[in-house]
C-alpha cells in the first residue's frame, strides 16, 4: 500500500473555497481504481492547515490517479488557495 499525505496551508480568505475544491477532489478520487482511502482534514490546533490523506493499492493506481483530470486540476489550481506550496510525503507499507 502507498500512503500519500499532502500538507496545505490555506489563505484564510480562501478557506471556504478551498474546502469546496478539496471536497470535489476527494469525491472524485475515491472513485479511482485502486483507491483504498481518500479524505482531507483540518488541523485542530493550526487554523487553516489541511491534510489530504490518500491510501492506494499500488504504484499503478497512483500513476493512474496522477493522470486524472481532477488531480491535474488540483495541481494546477491549488496554489491559488495556499499561502505557499503544498508539501507531499509518500510512504510505502507491506499491507
From TrEMBL:
Annotated keywords: Monooxygenase, Oxidoreductase
A GO molecular function held by the record: monooxygenase activity
InterPro entries on file: ABM_dom, AI-2_Isomerase_LsrG, Dimeric_a/b-barrel
Source species, domain of life: Bacteria
Residue ranges of domain ABM in the record: 2-90
Protein's UniProt name: Antibiotic biosynthesis monooxygenase
Amino acid at each position: 500500500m502507498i500512503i500519500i499525505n499532502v500538507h496545505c496551508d490555506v489563505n484564510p480568505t480562501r478557506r471556504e473555497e478551498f474546502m469546496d475544491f478539496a471536497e470535489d477532489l476527494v469525491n472524485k478520487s475515491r472513485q479511482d481504481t485502486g483507491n483504498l482511502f481518500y479524505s482531507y482534514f483540518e488541523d485542530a490546533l493550526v487554523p487553516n492547515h489541511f491534510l489530504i490523506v490518500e491510501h492506494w493499492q499500488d504504484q499503478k493506481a497512483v500513476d493512474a490517479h496522477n493522470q486524472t483530470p481532477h488531480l491535474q486540476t488540483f495541481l494546477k489550481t491549488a496554489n491559488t488557495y495556499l499561502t505557499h506550496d503544498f508539501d507531499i510525503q509518500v510512504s510505502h507499507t507491506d499491507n
